[in-house]
Every structure is written in C-alpha cells, then in structure tokens.
C-alpha cells in the first residue's frame, strides 16, 4: 500500500504529505482519525491537533517554530502561519552523548591516484588557476588550447581553467580567504598537475603566493607570470605540454576506502530532504567513518536550531567550545550586518514545504549521521582529522561547495529537492529527495533517494549508494563533469578597493 503521509517522530504534532492530500480525506495519529479541512501539497505539513497562537510546531521531535494564529487540526500549515523561534547569541552547556553505530569494517577499496606525497586523488586532471581575475581570459584560452591539441584531453580526466573575480583590490580577511582557497586548490590531489597564472602587479603576488603554498611538488605545480614573458599563450602552452606528458603516465591503483573524503551539502531543499536524501547521506557518512574515512559538514547558518545535536556529539570539551564559536561567530556575522539569524529558507525551500530555519536545520544536519564530531575547521582550512568534521562556511551553494572541496574533499555529495545543475572543482554528485525531480532532470540528478518513500528500505538504498560512490571515486563521471559545469566561488565580506 502506498504511503501518503508520514509522522517522522512520535513526538511530532504535524505529519508530512508524501503525496498530495485532499480536503475530506482522513489520516490517523495516536489512534485518532483526523479529517482534512484543506488540501495539502506533497512535502508540506498537516496539523495533527488544534493549535492556539504561540504554540510550537514539533517536527523531527524538536520545535521548528511557533504558529502565529490559531490553526485547527487537519489543516495545511506553512511559512504563512509559522514563525521562527531563533533570536541572537546563546549560551550552551556541553551535555555529551554516547554514539554507537555498530557498523562492520568491510575493507573495501576504490581506484584512485596515489600522489608523490602519499595523498590520494579520485581524478587526474590538469588545472589552470589564476592568481587574479585579470588573467581569466588567458587561463580560459590556455585550457581551450590544450584540449584542442590533445583531442579533448585524451589520457587525463579533464583539462579545466578556474576563473574567479579576486586576487586584487581586497583587504584583510577577504584577501587571506582568496589566498587560502587558491592554495587549497593548487595542492588538491584531484589535480595531477597545476599551472598557476599570475599577472604580476596584483595584490596576490605570485612569488608571495608561492611561499604561502608551502611545500609542493615542483614537477607537477608550475607558475607563469604574464607580465614577465613575451607571449603568455606560447609560454603557457609550453608548460602545459610538459605537465600533460607527465599526467598521462599516471594510473589508478587500489586504495582503501579509509582514504576517501566526502563533503556533505544540500541545496534547493524541500519537505522530503529530511526524510529521504539527507538521512541517506547520514547513513553513508556513518558507514564511511566506520571504514576509517572522512566526511565534512558545512553550511553553518543551516545548523541554527539543530546545533546542540552536533555540540553534544563532540568528542571533547575543546571541540564543543570550537563548535559554539563556529555557531556564534556566524550569528555575529549576521547581526553585524543588521540581518536576523533566522531568515534563511529560500522561496524554493518554502514552496517545497520548509517553513523555518529550524525545520531546514533539523533536516540539513541529518546529512552527517550519528557519528562523533572529530574536528572543527575554519574557512579555508585543510583537513587534518579523519572522521566527521564541521567546516565554517555559509549556506550559499557555490561558496559552500567550493569550501568543502578546498578542505580536501574528493567528492561533494549534494542533496536537492528542487534541482540544480552546478558543480564545483571536484565531482559534485546530485542526490534527489524525490523521484519526480529525478525523472524530470536526469541530466542534473545522479542518484534518486526518492525511492525511500516508495517503500524501498533505507538500508537497501544505502547499499546501492555506497556502490555508486565507490564507482564515482574510481572514475565514473557525474553529470556536472559530463557537462563541464565546474566553477568556484570565494567567500567575500569586506571592502573592495
């Protein structure tokens, strides 16, 4: 029998429509039969009791806000009747919980590229990275030239230029953020070789940036300063031909799954996100961590309202304190710009059934499963600790996905209920929350989690998903790679000169 509605937690006083419900139909809760007073779109909430103005709506077992008007049972309730409970900064108390996942170690492997420094990549690509936006045209021309000479990059996984707007006219933290993200890209193991192209007069001086990078493989990472060569195209192509010849010799080898690092991201979320795709990623994250691997959760504003769940899973008091700072620093960022901390759900989120930031956060944080928090990272910081890590970055899809890749993630796992085509500089796998999206956007969606509400057990779906992630880590392209949708976005906060 097809499921038409779902009460996620026994404490919930709303249910979620799995398929459209109609006035006059009946649903059951706590042994009572409730007749619907209104139609309820799929993914949206229906009340299971009579609410008085000011009462909290409970979903996932937690308050997601309060109703602003009286709402009778059996009624569609949305952002029009619900207001967030979020306010400013909070004081938190560490109340650690025990975590037990009981997932067996399976000793599985994927086919990856072992780099000279011992790190592993899941792609063998040639990247052309500008130190400053002034040379964007040059890096694009160089990438096109090398692809043309090599029959589209035969022998490597891709040849890609990554233009951006920054590297000059920035001050303080913005300038440092640009340097960090570009450094992280240069050192990323998914690149078999990198050509860094500078102009010569920018704030992000190539020689200074070279020192900022630290130790690197000079055989695979090269620099060119356009103002110091007679013909930047010919010189760039000469270097790229040398790099290409070396990359073509690289081969995939068996690598333990413990070496895999994935980023966890959602965008265009809907009312199914916290029921299908996000819990699926949570189950996968727990599995990967049990194998010794690593996952990274970001989108700090989308933790607001669910942050205590993460805080109490921190392994140590120090990590708890770092997570408190992670949350409150981002709230300070909002407040310093005169913005409320709870105004996050987008028009697409609301149309898909998400009414408040708390509701979004309780669904969003399910992506990281139930494992302990083992690390907390600043924006632009590179991974140092295996297991579950929290990363400081905003919710913006392009900025957050870039930050995940920059931290060292090999793949970004991206759940979506509304759909999005974009990809960052590592494979950006789209997992749909509902089957309708997967059917209508097969060129965007790589894996459909909507089957979970169509009576496929979560465990079965997860087994298929594990196999698919291993295939992608071993070289199978996802849609953003097939379509060459690859871009970067760097977090900016301050003055532009």
Mean pLDDT: 96
What's the tally of helices?
13
Helicity range: 25-40%
Overall strand count: 23
Low-confidence stretches: none
Distance from N terminus to C terminus (CA atoms, Å) equals: 63 Å
Broad shape:
globular
Structural class given helices, strands, pairing?
alpha/beta
Based on CA atoms alone, the radius of gyration comes out at 24 Å
Main-sheet strand order equals 19-20-18-17-21-22-23
The largest pleated sheet is described as: 7 strands, parallel
Query: Beta-strand percentage?
Result: 15-25%
Question: What would your notes on this structure say?
Answer:
The chain has 497 residues and is of the alpha/beta class. It has a seven-stranded parallel sheet, with helices on both faces. Strands 1-2-5-8 form a four-stranded antiparallel sheet, with no helix packed on it. It has a four-stranded parallel sheet with strand order 13-12-14-15, sandwiched between helices. Helix 2 crosses helix 10 and helix 5 crosses helix 12. The protein is globular and about 80 Å long. The model has no long low-confidence stretch (mean pLDDT 96).
